[in-house]
Amino acid sequence: MTLILHPILQQSFATIDREIGAHHFSEEQYAIVRRVIHSTADFEFQELLRFSPDVISIATAALAAGMPIVTDVKMVTIGIQTVVQQTFKNPIITAVDACQSPPPGQTRTETGMLQCLQAYPSAIYVIGNAPTALLALCQQLKTAFPLPTLIIGVPVGFIGVTEAKSALAQSAIPQIRTEGRKGGSPVAAAITNALLTLAWQQRDAC
After folding, report:
1. CATH of the domain at 152
2. Is 39 part of a structural domain of the chain?
3. Longest Cα pair distance anywhere in the chain, in angstroms?
4. What does the pLDDT read at residue 143?
5. pTM of the predicted model, to two decimals?
6. Is residue 6 annotated as part of the catalytic site, yes or no?
7. What secondary structure does DSSP assign to 87-103, as a single string?
């Protein structure tokens, strides 16, 4: 089954292509960048997105194998569930919903993320909203085993956001992240959907 792009989406992609023009991204990186710009109408993301080496091939192989996806909040889950169901039907776990009895001083998302790490240590982790969840996850990477397959770390905001992204950048975990304050659930969903689409296209090409 081939994924069919809606005509409006195709026209939007064509507009983005014209406005960006020549670029330094690989074909697969650009598919992600373009999807993020489409979701945000913000061309600055072409300067903010960061990809660790081989992260796209790692992500597409894991998605095609049915690896669970752990999101921080429901909005990310809602943003990816249609494409997930159209492709590999990966289990999706929402950390804030999985949270049980957060201790004093911890957010529900942070607590839920750490509980998910215990239950799904090798999963793909997608954080689009909660910097506390990303920072807590990164702090556990020093002792966690096995490690997550990859982390998409694009929380948005003013408090703790750049610190959480810096912690992710300093880790060796395969990752896609944004620099600075920008990001958000739509960005996280766009990246994940682009990776799912790339993985599905590779499957069709085989």
Report:
1. 3.40.50.10230
2. no
3. 51
4. 87
5. 0.95
6. no
7. TT---EEEHHHH--SPP
